[in-house]
Amino acid sequence: MSAGMRLDFRSDTVTLPTPQMRKAMADAELGDDQYGEDPTVRALEERSAEVVGKEAALFVPSGIAGNLCAILAQCQRGDEVVLGELSHIFQNEGGGYAVFGGLCARTVPNRSACPDPADVAAVIRPQGVQFPRSALLCLENTHNWLSGAVVKPAEMDAVCAVAKRAGMAVHLDGARIFNAALALGVEVKVLCAPVDTVQFCFSKGLSAPVGSAICGSKAVIEKARKARKMLGGAMRQSGVLAAACRVAIDTMRDRLADDHANAKRLAEGLASIQGVRIDASKIDTNIVAFGLDESKFGERFRYACVAEGLLLSCYGGDWRKLRAVTYHGLEREHVDAALRIVKAAVAVA
Questions:
Q1: Average pLDDT for 47-74
Q2: Theoretical Cys-Cys bridge with 73: which of 135, 223, 293, 303, CB 3.0 to 4.6 Å?
Q3: Dihedral sign, Cα of residue 161, residue 97, residue 94, residue 105
Q4: Which run of H or E residues covers position 190?
Q5: Sheet hosting strand 80-84, strand order edge to edge
Q6: Considering the domain boundaries, does residue 137 fall inside one?
Q7: Are residues 58 and 203 in the same domain?
Q8: Residues 211 and 324 reside in one and the same domain
Q9: 218-230 vs 63-74: helix axis angle to the nearest 10?
């Protein structure tokens, strides 16, 4: 990103493919993936499953598609899905589980990134014809609405054990699971071991242009493949996209540490600005959630940032709950420039 360009901190989805990705896309060997004949897609799926320690994987267009296909593959109509009240699946995915799956949602508090096992146990339904079946627990790591907070392996193990004792499957929305693994200093396989399915994104911190993967057992992935077909997500020569994703998963994971360092620098800088509310010690990964004192918030702040080229996002359409995300392409100098703009915008708000 060169000087004078806009400072886009809205999301790591605005990452651009690297030159190596673009070359891989141009050179990709292709076939019709709907017939299972695209060798580049097949290779990506095998690699994806291997990285997270699962039997099989399915390439899908997006994280939302991946979560939905995984849910549909593990539930029947009328079942109930248990998930955090601040989870991305519940807050930001259009209720697809209800629209397409005929499923009920039962939420539990998100006091932290991982739901409390006791809260999960309390909402699991008893068996009976008058109750929906508690079929699936959905977790999220890192947690978007909680400023990219991570879920530790022990926390994952404890809450998954509750679900398993009740005969429930567990799905992990791991859109940024590689950020979580890096922040915790553990192998990504460790974080995925207790869950039945995991979805992760190539198009966020890993910088590929399009795509996510669902990983799980061969049986569940075959069901997810049918769900993908019904949803219109079965693509043709999708190896042109999978080629970039293969480069992403093999070359872009370690550099996520740079994004974490930039996010911490941003959070600490924001904490020094009078009128900004943030606990910089709680920033684990590449998402920085912050707020403004009520006296400082207003459209003037938002537009003052935009006027100087700084783009931010917010949670749930509420511009009192702001979000900034670091990613490949944003460097230390861009963080410092953003801080100068926020300081000036707060001063005039």
A1: 98
A2: 223
A3: negative
A4: helix 188-192
A5: 56-60, 212-216, 197-201, 169-173, 134-140, 80-84, 104-108
A6: yes
A7: yes
A8: no
A9: 120
